[in-house]
Design brief:
The protein is of the alpha/beta class and about 280 residues long. It is built from 11 helices and 6 strands. Strand 5 and strand 6 form a beta hairpin.
Length: about 280
């Protein structure tokens, strides 16, 4: 995907944790999904994740203040530059979408933390790079250890720049859910009906996939041959059924099956964010 170079005036980027943002770990999507993704990909025990997270948080606190030199962070590696280019494009695309729908004042850019060193402390608790990229609604920040992209390609077979763009666009989709109030509605529905909690979480994830497709669909002129296939491969690779290999029942899925995730991404590629609304309809 031929994205324009990032403009540091249109992005909010920092690097926390104990190291840089080189091209070589990975996090989930909030507190519950972090544990799930860590279990599915790296075999972490979800019942012990809280203890692990606390330890990582203590280590991260000693790492010092975050680096806020956006130019240096964004040019520190190929992956970092890609992430910054994608963030700039996502900010512009979603700001315009909100404006067109008359909700321009509601839009707010998220921050991007390209942390390194294995761990990071967030408003949602602490996380480690063994869990995958995630969005924390508490501080409205997308967290990515760019080393996850190597895991995505080597262990899950989902390589290519569009696969990586899909990952950050998905997490950005969770930010859209936060500022539109959808995330709050789903959380309330989960509290009112705990038995539906996982199914509602799946809807959240599928809508984020759909929103990722919306971003790409609204920038279809920048898509190159093979990009869509890379995205579909990535979406299928991180389906709950594929990741768990039958070890977890469908009632415990939290992200959706490979087929569901691919279908949601394809729906979004039409470029109409309203088409994604029905996915999380809890009425």
């Amino acid at each position: 995907m031929r994205l324009n170079p990032f403009d540091t005036g249109n992005i909010n980027v920092r690097s926390s944790g104990g190291g840089g943002v080189g091209k070589a770990g990975g996090l989930g999507c909030g507190t519950i999904v972090i544990a799930a993704l860590g279990y599915f990909i790296f075999g972490l025990d979800p019942f012990q994740t809280a203890a692990v997270v606390d330890q990582v948080g203590q280590q991260t606190q000693q790492a010092g203040p975050a680096n806020t030199d956006e130019q240096a962070i964004c040019t520190s590696s190929e992956y970092a530059t890609e992430a910054c280019n994608a963030l700039d494009s996502l900010n512009r695309t979603w700001a315009q979408a909100f404006q067109q729908q008359g909700f321009g004042n509601q839009f707010k850019q998220p921050a991007l933390d390209l942390y390194g060193g294995g761990g990071v402390r967030t408003a949602c608790g602490a996380g480690s790079s063994s869990m995958g990229p995630f969005y924390c609604p508490g501080d409205e920040t997308i967290y990515i250890d760019t080393a996850f992209y190597d895991t995505l390609e080597r262990q899950l077979g989902a390589g290519g720049d569009f696969a990586r763009y899909y990952v950050i666009a998905h997490e950005y989709g969770h930010h859209v859910q936060k500022i539109t109030g959808i995330a709050g509605q789903i959380q309330s529905a989960q509290q009112q009906n705990p038995r539906m909690a996982n199914q509602l979480q799946v809807r959240m994830e599928l809508q984020a996939d759909c929103y990722a497709g919306v971003w790409a669909g609204k920038n279809r002129n920048l898509i190159e041959p093979g990009d869509i296939e890379e995205g579909m491969t990535a979406a299928a690779a991180i389906g709950d059924d594929r990741l768990t290999g039958g070890r977890v029942s469908s009632e415990n899925f939290t992200h959706g099956t490979s087929a569901q995730r691919s279908q949601a991404l394809r729906l979004g590629l039409q470029g109409d964010d309203k088409a994604c609304d029905a996915i999380t309809n809890v009425g």
